[in-house]
């Protein structure tokens, strides 16, 4: 029979994402509801190594559901990549009587958590939190929806000035090597073209498309470029190349950068974080381990961490077709 869980740990790791605080709140509140103790480790794996934690309870997480960032801070710990680092962390968790750890982060966090659990037999449960939406086993990651809304808000503003000056704008968005942010925000913002790593459209196609839109009477255009796209790898060089080949275009570049990671989470991200984390606590109490909770077709499901790490989610190619039709 599985050991009764009395104390749960939680941490946030990797790139922060809006909704992580809603997730921490849900872990602390669900723990309190089920009468188990909850400790929050600071700066992800690094706080576990340094035994840096705070006690969390239902009241200590008040007024954070609406806050961007993470009250537990985040980091990408180099020390945790070493066996010694992980051994220090395990010793600290054992000393603190932690029965299960809830890890809120992306695939790097889950990879670290899986090795850690295998080496030290401390149950871990992953909760997908990243703006990139690049985790297999969930249709949505915490923070993705907020990031999309931040991007379309920014692009709407760029559109105003693009249209006033008859300009072409290349807007680079985040996503690491996945094009989810670019593809969905591109459609939402009404972009002319969307460049994503999953689909190499080539430079000729881009030039033809821009040439066609000019002939069709468009006076300004927006191209969304995912940071991981091959031809847009350097968005400034891409803009220069387009200017050289289509000299009538006054091309400008905006790199949205880390504003995409900040801000108050949307209602969608708050609800997602709440649902995922209540489930994560319930599964921890049930003695489950080395799993990740995700939302598939609006249902909260758990999959083995090893399976979540094996694959990458695929983009919906239908969205590229929609974008093509709508940029006529
Ligand atoms: O994974 C989230 C993310 O914001 C990616 O979109 C981006 O490539 C990366 O993190 C940037 O990381 P850093 O925090 O090191 O700037």
Automatic annotation (TrEMBL):
UniProt-annotated binding residues for substrate: 130-132, 167, 174-176, 227, 252, 258-261
Compartments where found: Cytoplasm
NCBIfam families in the cross-refs: PFKA_ATP, PRK03202.1
Activity regulation, per record: Allosterically activated by ADP and other diphosphonucleosides, and allosterically inhibited by phosphoenolpyruvate.
Name of the protein in question: ATP-dependent 6-phosphofructokinase
Required cofactor names: Mg(2+)
Pathway(s) of this molecule: Carbohydrate degradation; glycolysis; D-glyceraldehyde 3-phosphate and glycerone phosphate from D-glucose: step 3/4
Domain Phosphofructokinase: 7-283
tRNA processing listed as a keyword: no
Any Pfam family hit: PFK
GO molecular function, one term: ATP binding
Residues annotated as binding ATP: 15, 76-77, 106-109
Organism field: Salegentibacter salinarum
Keyword field contains Cell inner membrane: no
Gene Ontology cellular component list: 6-phosphofructokinase complex
Reactions listed under catalytic activity: beta-D-fructose 6-phosphate + ATP = beta-D-fructose 1,6-bisphosphate + ADP + H(+)
Assembly and interaction partners: Homotetramer.
Enzyme Commission designation: 2.7.1.11
Keyword annotations: Allosteric enzyme, ATP-binding, Cytoplasm, Glycolysis, Kinase, Magnesium, Metal-binding, Nucleotide-binding, Transferase
């Amino acid at each position: 029979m599985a050991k009764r869980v009395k104390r749960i740990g939680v941490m946030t790791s990797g790139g922060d994402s809006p909704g992580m605080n809603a997730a921490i709140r849900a872990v602390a509140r669900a723990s309190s509801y089920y009468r188990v103790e909850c400790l929050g480790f600071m700066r992800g794996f690094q706080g576990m190594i340094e035994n840096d934690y705070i006690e969390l309870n239902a009241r200590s997480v008040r007024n954070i559901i609406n806050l961007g960032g993470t009250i537990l801070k985040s980091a990408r710990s180099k020390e945790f990549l070493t066996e010694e680092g992980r051994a220090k962390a395990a010793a600290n968790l054992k000393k603190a009587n932690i029965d299960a750890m809830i890890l809120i982060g992306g695939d790097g966090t889950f990879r670290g958590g899986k090795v850690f659990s295998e080496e030290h037999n401390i149950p871990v449960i992953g909760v997908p939190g990243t703006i990139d939406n690049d985790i297999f086993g969930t249709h949505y990651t915490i923070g993705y929806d907020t990031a999309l809304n931040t991007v379309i808000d920014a692009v709407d503003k760029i559109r105003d000035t693009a249209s006033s000056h008859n300009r072409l704008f290349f807007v680079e968005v985040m996503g690491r090597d996945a094009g989810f942010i670019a593809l969905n925000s591109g459609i939402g913002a009404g972009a002319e073209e969307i460049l994503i790593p999953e689909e190499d459209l080539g430079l000729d196609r881009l030039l033809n498309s821009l040439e066609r839109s000019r002939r069709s009477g468009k006076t300004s255009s927006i191209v969304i470029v995912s940071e991981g796209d091959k031809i847009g790898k350097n968005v400034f060089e891409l803009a220069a190349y387009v200017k050289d080949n289509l000299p009538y275009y006054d091309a400008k570049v905006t790199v949205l950068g880390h504003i995409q990671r900040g801000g108050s989470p949307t209602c969608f991200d708050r609800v997602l974080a709440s649902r995922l984390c209540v489930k994560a606590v319930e599964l921890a109490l049930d003695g489950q381990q080395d799993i990740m909770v995700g939302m598939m077709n609006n249902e909260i499901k758990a999959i083995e961490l090893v399976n979540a790490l094996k694959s990458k989610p695929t983009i919906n190619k239908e969205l590229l077709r929609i974008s093509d039709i709508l940029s006529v």
